Amino acid sequence: MADPWVVVVESRGPAEGGQVSPHLSNPQKTHTKQTMRRQSLTMFANATRSLLGAGKHLRVPLSIRSLSSPSQLNAPETKAAPQANPTSAPEATATSERLGALGENARLPRSVQAVYLRPLRRKAEYGLPVCDLQLRSYSVENVEFFADFAIRAAYYLDLPVSGPVPLPRIVERWTVPRSNFVHKKSQENFERITLRRLIQIKDGNPQAVQAWLAFLRKHAFYGVGMKANVWEHESLDVSKSMDQSAPEIQKSLEPHLAQFGQRKDNSAGNNIFDILDSDRFAERKNV
Question: Which residues contact 137 (CB under 8 A, 6 or more apart)?
């Protein structure tokens, strides 16, 4: 097999019937030059092949350096970070220490701390019930939250309170047709559960009880209904006191009952004859 790195140069001499080129005057010298050129090419091919074979058996990887960017012998210099103002460090330390001291020594107000604790209660002296407040809701969270709120409000009004007592649930169910066309023979069931809690006030002043109920109505919670039964202790002359208070009650209810049974925007101050004699109906009378 011929060596791929050997270049064969053929030349025709005068013995083969060719003519000698004008620049090759001496055929012997030309043959010598061709032989030397062939030997040099063979040596170059053998050396290259030996180097390529030696590179395959190297176990230590050679270091390859990219020619696109010059190597940096020294590490790049890092820019020094800007130093903080030495006068601000003591001020920050003093501020943090002062805030830490305030957090350790100070406390939240009593009203805020009471939110995370159980409601406070007043102790009943005689145990006479004066008010039963019943809370109703379809949600457990709503009724429990508002019951806790009512008990805390009773404490600040100096009202002894007991409860909340869970009452039996009211379960209502309805069975109705699913539809009036294709599904008219199939039925669908609905269920509604009402949750109840009872809060009782004992030995309370009637005015304080009324203020407590008014406060609960003012700050009523959504989804919670209230029903209150109030007992008041009166003397034997209760009929006389009721007759004396009747004019005052009637006077207080007069603004609310003035428009009872008729529309406010449809009321007229004049009678029917004044309306007929007005200018509105004068033209029709002449016709």
Answer: 143, 146, 194, 195, 223, 224, 225
Both tokens of residue 135?
A: 């809370």
The CA distance from 211 to 127, in Å, is 20
Given a cut of 90, whether residue 32 has pLDDT beyond it is no
CATH number at residue 200: 3.30.70.600
Q: Is residue 46 part of a domain?
A: no
pLDDT of residue 272: 72
pLDDT at 102: 64
Q: Which helix (H) or strand (E) holds 259?
A: none
Over residues 67-96, mean pLDDT: 58
Assess if residue 26 is contained within a domain: no
208, 214, 244, 253, 255 from 248: Cα distances, Å: 21, 20, 8, 9, 13
Tokens of 88: 């601000």
Helix (H) or strand (E) holding 235: none
Widest Cα–Cα separation across the chain: 167
Work out the angle between the directed axes of helices 206-218 and 140-156 (0-180°, nearest 10): 140
Say if residue 180's pLDDT is above 90: no
- pLDDT for 185-244, tens place per residue? 888 999 999 999 999 999 988 999 999 999 999 999 999 999 999 998 888 888 888 888
* Amino acid code (one letter) for 222: Y
Q: Is residue 100 part of a domain?
A: no
> Residue 164, preceding bond cis, omega within 30 degrees?
yes
Has residue 78 been placed in a domain?
no
For the chain, what is the domain count? 1
Closest by CA to 27, choosing from 43, 14, 10, 45, is: 14
Looking up tokens 């909340």 gives 164
Q: What mean pLDDT is predicted for residues 17-37? A: 53
Rounded average pLDDT over 171-188: 87
What residue numbers bound the domain in which 229 lies? Answer: 119-233
